[in-house]
Amino acid sequence: MKSRTPGQSDGRRSEVRRRTEADREVAPTANGCPTPVVSPARAEKRDEHLLALHRARARQAIDRIRCWAEEKGLDRLTMNEIDEIIADVRRQGRSRASQGK
Fold it and tell me: Residue by residue, what is the 3-state secondary structure of 74-94?
């Protein structure tokens, strides 16, 4: 994957398109940090391509949540402990709702 600065892609869409087709993906950068990744997609496969990207993002989010839970020790909770936490939160929600009325 090639990296590009904004100055290399601003106003040069045909160049970005050509490089995207040749390199498969192009990652424009700002101050050395990647911004959006430009990836080629055929019109007839565009929705499938976007769905695959959304699924990949979802998997990354789940991985981050799992790592966070592991760091906090939450991955070792039993189902009974989870049920107790949920019941406590629900009780607090009902208590707050009755105080607001």
Answer: HHHCCHHHHHHHHHHHHHHHH
Q: Where are the alpha helices (DSSP H) in 1-101?
A: 6-9, 13-23, 46-72, 79-100
Domains of the chain: 1-40 (3.40.1620), 43-101 (no CATH)
Note the pLDDT tens digit of each residue in 50-101: 899 899 999 999 999 999 999 999 999 999 999 999 999 999 987 777 776 5
The length of the chain, given as a count of residues? 101
The region that residue 93 occupies, defined by phi over 0 for left and psi between -120 and 50 for alpha, beta otherwise, is alpha
Q: Cβ-count burial of 11 within 10 angstroms (0-12 exposed, 13-18 middle, 19+ buried)?
A: exposed
